[in-house]
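ok trying again, last paste got cut off:
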Amino acid sequence: MNLDWNLFLAINQFAGHSQGLDALGKFFAEYAFLLFALLLVSLWFLPAPAAVRRAREQSCINAVGALAGALLSAHLIGVFFYRARPFVAHAVTQLIPHPPDASFPSDHTTLAFTLIVALWFALGRTRWFWLAWGVAIGLARVFVGVHYPTDVLGGALLGAAWGALALVAAPMVVRIEQPVLERLARWRLA
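nice, full thing came through this time. structure:
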């Protein structure tokens, strides 16, 4: 037995024994990532001084660009380095339905960590909440039986790398974003 499988068993063993814990695990595994959409909309539309608002809008654009790159990368990794999901390769407690596609890396965790890192400065004091939210999503994907811990770790690292790239590239892409933001401002969307 390897460490990844042992960690999977240590987390997944609690699935199917408590309705409350199962419901919490299912929520985080399937729906918790949707809060990131609300986060992006909030950062975009919440009132703030003009300079702060413009910086948040640029952060949102950079984060969405990084997210596209991260999810495309995750898909390509899954295609070229296919790994069967735990419920395909083993008899496990699976709490949510899922197609038997590639397990590595976790798309949900990739999404969460891309946005957390790309929006790190825009998140202010709430960044630690969002980091905990992302960790909970990753753990829940293991708990419900659809990912191994290294799938989640790989997704977190991939997402963090793309998020960091968005932060580093932000000063370079501002010239591209500026006309977009000006056009959106004319339409009262920025």
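cool. The mean pLDDT is 92. The domain at 3-186 is CATH 1.20.144.10 (Vanadium-containing Chloroperoxidase; domain 1).
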